Amino acid sequence: LASRDFHPDDTIIEVKGVKIGGEHLAIMGGPCAVESPEQIDEIAKLVKASGAQILRGGAFKPRTGPYSFQGIGVEGLKMMAEAGERHGLLTITEVMTPEYVDVCAEYADILQVGTRNMQNFDLLRKLGTCGRPVLLKRGFSATYDEFLNAAEYILAGGNRDVMLCERGIRTFETYTRNTLDLSAIPVLQGLSHLPVISDPSHGTGRRELVEPMAKASVAAGANGLIIEMHTDPDNSMTGDGVQSLFPDQFDNLLRDLEKLAPLV
Ligand code: PEP
Ligand code: MN
To answer: Where in this chain does the record put each DAHP synthetase I/KDSA domain (predicted)?
Structure first.
């Protein structure tokens, strides 16, 4: 079902009037984690003012160590839903387990599967019937074939609204957090009809690389970008402040991007 052979035309996913896929660029911006009502509201305001359509933010965080901040949970979902509503933005949030799919689907417009869960097949099956579009991140060591097979689990369950997200893979290089695989964008678009989104934040792990890799992703044909932005990145509650753009950088980037492709 993910293959172009099955579905020759590009899939365009429509979420409350916002079309993801095709010629327009979908921009998802926001913090790594929802931290407080004030934080998410302030960031939502800035994301909207810059011309993006979708607010990102994690309420459930898949942290490498069990003692790190794990996200604020359902309260965070509610805070983000309110901020999205107030500022006229769609919302996207990560869901980590099948048990939380329903509550995440209740509060968010789009559900995100993180890189660490790309092959959590019980989660993928559950997302097949969740009634929300899904942004599936590529596992950091997954081949294209494994990635498309993971998408297939969601599609096979009856959910045809799946976006593929390249977020960097693990290589021998350590200067960057991951290596953003730009080839993935045209390769996946050739093999599949599903929209392809690039994540230059996790793909590089370094703020100064987000802008060039965002532009490179759009030049390579990406249908959208998911970008971390924070009003106070140095004090963010996850380690991802180092890769988060400041609001003015986010705004400048969008001004440049809209010269390359119209924003949705
Ligand atoms: C995130 O989007 O904050 C995140 C945890 O992403 P990934 O699963 O790509 O590491
Ligand atoms: Mn993050």
So the answer is: 12-259
Residue 17 within any structural domain of the chain: no
Q: Kindly report the CA angle at 224 between 223 and 226, in degrees rounded to 5? A: 155
The amino acid that residue 179 corresponds to is T
Residue 127 in any domain: the answer is: yes
* Atom 10 of ligand 1, residue of closest alpha carbon: 115
ipTM, two decimals, is 0.99
Q: Distance, CA 210 to ligand 2 centroid (Å)? A: 13
Give the C-alpha separation, 86 to 201, whole Å: 26
Domain carrying residue 113: 26-61+69-257
In this structure, is residue 169 part of a structural domain?
A: yes
Cα of 174 from ligand 2 centre, angstroms: 18
| Whether pTM exceeds 0.90 | yes
197 lines ligand 1 (CB under 6 A): no
42 inside domain: yes
Q: Quick check: CB of 115 below 6 Å from ligand 1?
A: yes
The Cα–Cα gap between 130 and 104 comes to 10
- Tens digit of each residue's pLDDT (9 = 90 or more) over 59-75: 999 999 999 999 999 99
Q: Is the pLDDT of residue 264 over 90?
A: no
How many domains does the chain fold into?
1
Query: pLDDT for 9-55, tens place per residue?
Result: 999 999 999 999 999 999 999 999 999 999 999 999 999 999 999 99
Q: Which atom of ligand 1 is found nearest the CA of 114?
A: 8
User: What is the chain's percent helix, strand, coil content, to nearest 5?
Assistant: 40, 20, 40
Here the CATH number for the domain that contains residue 158 is 3.20.20.70
Within 10 A of 260 (CB to CB), how many other CB atoms are there? 11
